[in-house]
Amino acid sequence: MSETPWLERLRGGFKKTSDRLGDNLTGLFTKAVLDEATLDEIEEALIASDLGPATAAKVRDRLASERYERGLTEAGVREVVAEELAKILAPVATPLEIDAFPRPQVILVVGVNGSGKTTTIAKLAHLFLEQDYGVLLAAGDTFRAAAIGQLKVWAERIGVPIITGPEGGDPSAIVFDGVKKATAEGIDVLIVDTAGRLQNKKGLMDELAKIRRVLGRLNPAAPHNVVLVLDATTGQNALSQIEVFKEVAGVTGLVMTKLDGTARGGVLVAAAEQYGLPIHAIGVGEGIDDLRPFDPEEAARAIAG
Ligand code: GDP
C-alpha cells in the first residue's frame, strides 16, 4: 500500500483542526502590533481549538517574547504554534516496542466502548505480524457479545488465533488461558481486549484488578503495557477518560483514533501536555493499515496549518 493515502487522510484530519484554528485566528492579523489584547485573543483561539490552556499559555508566552522580531503575520504565528506544539509532542512520541524477554509480552487494551478499541487491537496485531511476531488475541470484553464476535471476525481476517469465552464469563479466566496458550506455543505477544463500561467504574476497576492479579501470578512483569484507546472526536472528553483509566487501569500509553476527519485533533496536544503519557500510534481510518506511528513534527505542522 502506498504511503500517500494515509498521510493525506492524516493531513485531511488535522486540516479540520487547523481550519478551526484558522477560523478562530481569523481577524487577529489585521492589527499592526501584537498587543496584549491580540495575544489574549490568540490564546483563546488556541484553547477553543482543543489544544488546552497550558499549551495556549506557552504559545502566548513565545509570541509575546518574539513579537518584535517576527512581526505579526499569520504565517509567523503559525510557525511559532507549530514549534511549540512539536516541543510538547516530541517527548511523548514512543512506538509500542516488544521487549526481547519475557514471552509472551502482554498488552492490555482499555478504553470506553466505541473508542475504536477492537479495531485498534486488530491493527496492532497486524502491525506485529508484519514485524514477524507471533500474536494471540484474548477477548476479555465478555460483557458484550458483540465485542467477542467482532474481535473474532478480525482475528479470522488477519489470521491470528484468539481465545474467547462465553458472554458474561470471567475475563480473567480468558486471560489465564491466553497466557497459558501463548507460553506453551512460544507466542510473542498477547493482546487482551477489556470491557469499556465506565458507567460501572467500580465493577470495571475490580475486573481489571483481577485480570492484573491473574497475569501477575503467571508472569510477574505482566501486563507490560496498558494501552488506552481514545477517540479524538470526543475532544475534551478524551482527557477525562485518561484521568479515569489512569486510576482504574494504570495506563502506560495511548493510541488516539479517528484523527481522520475530526476538527478536534488538538486534544492530542492537550493530552500530551497534561499527562505526558507515551503516544504510541494514531488511528487514521477504519482499515487494518490505518494505524500509524506518531510523528510529532508532522502532527504539529498539520495542526498549525
Ligand atoms: P470499540 O467499541 O471501542 O471496540 O470500537 P470499534 O473498534 O468497534 O470502533 C468503533 C467504530 O469506529 C467502528 O465503526 C470503527 O470502524 C471506527 N474506527 C475505529 N478506529 C477508527 C479510526 O482511526 N478512524 C475512523 N474513521 N474510524 C475508526
UniProtKB/TrEMBL annotation:
Domain of life where this protein originates = Bacteria
Kind of enzyme, top EC level? hydrolase
According to the entry, every stretch annotated as the SRP54-type proteins GTP-binding domain falls at 104-305
The enzyme's E.C. designation: 3.6.5.4
GO CC, any one term: plasma membrane
Instruction: Specify which residues bind GTP according to the UniProt entry for this protein.
Output: 111-118, 193-197, 257-260
Q: Name one GO molecular function term.
A: GTP binding
Tell me where it resides.
Cell inner membrane; Cell membrane; Cytoplasm
Pfam families in the record: SRP54 (PF00448), SRP54_N (PF02881)
Query: Which HAMAP family does the protein's record reference?
Result: FtsY
The organism's lineage? Bacteria, Pseudomonadati, Pseudomonadota, Alphaproteobacteria, Sphingomonadales
Q: Which organism is it from?
A: Allosphingosinicella humi
Q: What is this protein called?
A: Signal recognition particle receptor FtsY
What the entry lists under SUPFAM superfamilies is as follows: Domain of the SRP/SRP receptor G-proteins, P-loop containing nucleoside triphosphate hydrolases
According to its UniProt entry, the protein's GO biological process terms are: SRP-dependent cotranslational protein targeting to membrane
Task: Give the membrane topology.
Answer: Peripheral membrane protein
**SMART domains linked to this entry:** AAA, SRP54, SRP54_N
- Record domain AAA+ ATPase: where: 103-254
